[in-house]
Amino acid sequence: MLDIIDEPHEMLLDNYISNIKRKKWENNYTIAEETVKLFRHFIDTIKWSTTKELLNQLRDYGMKITSALPLQFIVGNIVRRILNIIREEYIDARKNTEEEIDLQDSLHKIVSSEDDIDDYNTIVPELKLSIFEHLDEFQVEIESSNEDIAKQALEHIHSNEIILTVGKSSEVEMFLKKAAKDRTFEVFVTECAPLNHGRQLALNLSKHKIQSTLIPDSTMFGIMSRVNKVIIGVDSVMANGGLRTFNGCHAVSLAAAHYSVPVIVLAPMYKLSSRYLCSYNQDAFNEFVSPDGVLNYSDSVVSKVDVYNPTYDYVPPENVTLFISNNGGHSPSYVYRLLSEIYHPLDYDLSIH
């Protein structure tokens, strides 16, 4: 079905996949924005008459992209969100049309017509325009998500507190900077070795006149008893409320649980995934980078051992106290409800039509 894609869009798709694989867009926010732009162009380019045709083509297209980028959960999240947007616009348009046709319809007809709404075979005029308007709203939501999360900072950070964070997260950085305008507090940043992303965050916070201390990962447990709360960013929130996040966060969450320190996770809604962690399938969950930061290539031991350097850690939901999204605060058990609100159950598996 994807042979209908025109040549300019095929080049756009190749560039999109290439930019992600070569890590030109390392920020999840950028990937989310570019994914929405790509699908908007696709919807505008392909030929379709009914919503069912559009949904099927989008599912095939989404399956093609997610197969090429299996570790980019953000891409699958955006695909499913767009599919749900189309379903919502179709149902709203059908209901509006039926009301305009006959406002005097009996209750029986209105109730019985609900069963026909989900076939998606009715041609709805101006549906493309409605979809594009909703996509514009979704784009604005992505753009403002970090700011919306940061606005809640003063509700969670109080004066003279000690905050611990891991690695570098744009959400955490903006959150702490927002709180620092009205609160005085101290931040400990674990360096997140061997990638050492935490160094950049500590530097950025110190430039903003926030008292920050960079600490080795090994000292995290010893300092946890002094910490008031742990605030971390995340790559993806799994369907059970668990996290795919920076390497080292699992150890931090265990230390926090030992000392009964709350763990707050900052996660925009577009990072909420419908996927689960399969313990036997780490290749579909984790990404392994060069082990040079763990063991130098010049070391004679290298030829005798296998060295793995995973990018991500899994943090189970029982180690998370609170999620803060652009829509407010949620407990890990509420993730199931959020999933049902932003994704349609039929879109969890893109290979099924």
TrEMBL record:
Pfam families: IF-2B. The keyword Kinase does not apply. It is found in: Cytoplasm, Cytosol. SUPFAM superfamilies: NagB/RpiA/CoA transferase-like (SSF100950). GO terms for cellular component: cytosol; eukaryotic translation initiation factor 2B complex. Keywords: Cytoplasm, Initiation factor, Protein biosynthesis. InterPro entries: eIF2B_beta_subunit, IF-2B-related, IF_2B-like_C, NagB/RpiA_transferase-like. Belongs to the eIF-2B alpha/beta/delta subunits family. PANTHER family: TRANSLATION INITIATION FACTOR EIF-2B SUBUNIT BETA. This is Translation initiation factor eIF2B subunit beta.
